[in-house]
Design brief:
The complex is a heterodimer.
Chain A (H helix, E strand, L loop, with lengths): L12 E6 L3 E7 L9 H19 L4 E3 L3 E7 L8 E11 L3 E10 L2 E15 L6 H12 L15 E8 L3 E7 L19 H18 L9 E11 L8 E12 L2 E10 L2 E12 L4
Antiparallel strand pairs in A: 1-2, 2-5, 3-7, 4-7, 4-10, 5-6, 6-7, 8-9, 9-11, 10-13, 11-12, 12-13
Chain B lengths: L6 H19 L20 H15 L7 H7 L4 H4 E2 L2 E2 L1 H10 L23 H18 L1
Antiparallel strand pairs in B: 1-2
Classes of the chains: A alpha+beta, B mainly alpha.
Amino acid sequence: MAERFSAFSFVDRITSLEPGVRAAGRYWVPGAIAQFPPSLVAEAVGQLAAWASMSQLNFRFRPVAGLAGEALFMRDAAPGQTLDLEVAIERCDEEAISYGGAASVSGARILTLKDCVGPMLPMEEFDAPEAVRADFDVLRGAGAPAGRFQGVSPREVAVIERVPGERLRAELRVPEAAPFFGDHFPRRPVFPGTLLLDTQIGLAVQLAGEAAPLRDAGVLAPVRVSDVKMRAFISPGQVLELRLELQSATPKGATISITARANGKPVSTGRADIAPRRPS
Amino acid sequence: MQQEISKEEIAAVYPKVAQIIADALGLETVDVKPAAPLIEELGAESIDFLDLVFRLERAFGVKIPRGKIVEDARGDLGESDFEQKGVLTEVGNKRLREFLSEVPAERFKTPMKSADIPKLFTPETFCKVVIRAQRAAQAAA
């Protein structure tokens, strides 16, 4: 499958690995894509943690998105830049991996991840263990070819209800087919939680910009997401209801609760802090 | 045999445990009652238990190994003496009732599937988990 190990893979090389303790790696953001959102930088760090845990558990299990205690976004990653990724593993066993991590560009930190937990599931459900092991060997050796990621199409979002500066409800139609499903995951397509988060952050920026204290604040950007919890897998073609509610707003920034529901039940919950973009 | 856990010990950790449960489940602390079943009354799912255990570990500086509650309930009983084909034996059921003494007797089913054990857990259950983990840490020090 052409998408496998390319369409949604964000580690090009694992440069160091201390099993069960820490790992470091690199990812070159393809120069040809329009943008590389902060949630995909977080995805890259999460994928490095996933590689470290899968190799530690001999490719019998793989982690999936579960909890992210806190992600702090300092700066965007621009196409053409190289991300230096690192993870510190707190615990890793057949139940879950818990870890923290970071991404930097040219020595400057652009993202910090804290208190993340990925529940482990049997690898066989998602991919062929031997194929994953072979990919891991590539990453530990010369590295995977750079520039495999071709970007993702904008998601199909329709606003259902908008009370400016207070709350927003929207419908997200997960595509039936997309290249990333071939990589995430080859045996079981799952809509990536970080693409959901990217969609939610986009709406949160809109909602924050309508709040009175931030109406004239210029360009807004995410600075933090916290207590993100993925409660269920999101499948191709699923329709999600996204709910965003402003919790607080000052001229320094806004906090917005973000929830995604499917069939009336929450599939993900969290909070986003949006603030005026700092000069870079 | 494990040392009994006193009401005073539970009361000492309860406020922090209740706050952590409220944070993990997105509830107000007042909604968390000591005897409220986490799954049926507070709406907890499996990811919430994982979240809860990691939050408790961080907040109390203890380690709570996977499957700790069931393992401690089983104690010195052999696995097949405790459960068979996913169902608790009569002895296993009795052990569990003694171990989860905070859970009213009518909430234990007979026969009871092992997979249903988490349905019994309450905030008080997790207070006891924390206290046992603290004791284990002190014993290891």
